[in-house]
Design goal:
The protein is an alpha+beta fold. Helices cover about 45% and strands about 20% of the residues. The strands form two sheets. The chain has a three-stranded antiparallel β-sheet with strand order 3-5-4. Helix 2 (about 45-55) packs across helix 3 (about 65-75). The longest helix has 15 residues, at about 5-20. The model has no long low-confidence stretch (mean pLDDT about 90).
Length: about 120
């Protein structure tokens, strides 16, 4: 177990949090040993690229759970499957992915890129 924070360390963490809590972004990543606020669409391009790779072996619809597993399994950032699915659904709503099935949970629907 580590030692307690010094007063200076605690103050630094409090100031960092106060600055982060004032940003409009709701997603934060760890980069260059710092926390950075980024737009919630930050991982969308990675999700799309992952879908393209999966479509190389399967030109039809792929299970959204397969895509989400691929994304969270290969990202360096620890994002949860709930957030990844939220972004997949956003890409569906924005016309990037076509959907087949009922999107009540990731195992009940499949997706494909519309340009494929």
């Amino acid at each position: 177990m580590g030692s307690p924070l010094s007063a200076e360390e605690r103050t630094a963490f409090v100031l960092d949090w106060q600055a982060l809590s004032k940003t409009k972004e709701v997603l934060r990543i760890w980069e260059d040993n710092e926390i950075h606020s980024v737009p919630e669409s930050y991982f969308d391009e990675y999700i799309i690229e992952s879908a393209k790779k999966l479509h190389k072996s399967n030109k039809g619809f792929i299970k959204s759970a397969r895509l989400i597993g691929e994304v969270i399994g290969h990202l360096d950032e620890p994002i949860g499957d709930g957030f990844a699915e939220y972004r997949v659904r956003s890409l569906i709503y924005n016309g990037i992915f076509a959907i087949k099935g009922i999107p009540k949970s990731m195992r009940f629907y499949s997706i494909k890129l519309k340009e494929i």
